[in-house]
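Researcher: Next entry: DUF2795 domain-containing protein (Streptomyces spirodelae).
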Amino acid sequence: MAHTTVEEVLAALKDVDFPAGKDELLQAAEESSAPAEVHVALRGIPPEQYANRAEVARSVQVDPDSDLGHSRAQHAEQARQGGKPGQSQYLREAPKPPVEDELDRGGER
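Model: Predicted structure:
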């Protein structure tokens, strides 16, 4: 798993003409002098054709503590659930556990 953010990966791909394959994405990251972590993240995506940046964002695996704001309970639920092939675990749907939802409401009844 790369210690980067989706924004950093997408910034490295700003000049890519989509659709693009994995090799083209890696080449674009190389040409944009992207950090090594971005290269690691892109090497971890499935070797497919990507229609747009959103598909790349859904496929790239980034640090789970990036910018998604999920709790530890939500991370655990994401790990237990299956997802679409090639979809990063951390982008799977993860509902808030009932106890967290109640705490957010302030324990109202």
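Model: Note for the record: The first strand starts at residue 20 and ends at 21.
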